[in-house]
Amino acid sequence: MDGLACYDNKRLATFLANSKVLINLLPLTAQTENILNRRLFCQLPRGAYLMNLARRRHLVEQDLIPMFRQRAIIRCVIRRFSSRTVT
User: Fold this and answer.
1) What backbone phi and psi angles, to 5 degrees, belong to 84?
2) Mean pLDDT computed over 44-67
3) How many CA atoms lie within 13 A of 59 on its CB side?
4) Are 50 and 25 in contact, with CB atoms under 8 Å apart?
5) Is the pLDDT of residue 82 over 70?
6) If 0-12 CB within 10 Å is exposed, 13-18 middle and 19+ buried, where does residue 43 land?
7) 10: alpha, beta or left? (left if phi > 0; alpha if psi -120 to 50)
8) Rg (CA), the chain
9) Residue 21 bridge partners (DSSP)
10) Which SS3 state, helix, strand or coil, does residue 59 take?
11) Which of 33, 36, 39, 76 could be stapled to 50 by a disulfide with Cβ–Cβ 3.0 to 4.6 Å?
């Protein structure tokens, strides 16, 4: 399709560095569990937006909170946190 780019794991860093908005719709597999983690967040441009519309087990919650505090990620939409209280 014109205007559509596809990236594999080898080019993930390039993709992330150019992604102001990251929307996760991946299926939950052994390879994608905990994929939304500090390492991935640090590859996004500062001030990125994150939407995790897939399974919550993709997200490492402890890694997301510091990214908010540092303003590395400024907005996120998730289905729900695994714990009741997030500080």
Assistant:
1) -75, -35
2) 93
3) 24
4) no
5) no
6) middle
7) alpha
8) 13
9) 49
10) strand
11) 76
Residue with tokens 């939407």: 51
User: Do the Cβ atoms of 17 and 45 come closer than 8 Å?
Assistant: yes
Tokens of 69: 């505090």
Q: Looking at residue 34, what DSSP letter applies?
A: T
Tokens 């996760």 sit at which residue?
Answer: 24
Q: What strands, in cross-sheet order, belong to the sheet with 21-24?
A: 21-24, 48-52, 73-78
Best CA proximity match to 82, nearest among 14, 33, 12 = 33
| Domain parsing of the chain, residue ranges | 9-78
31-47 pLDDT, tens digit each? 999 999 999 999 999 99
Query: Residue 36 in 3-state DSSP?
Result: strand
CATH of domain 9-78: 3.40.50.720
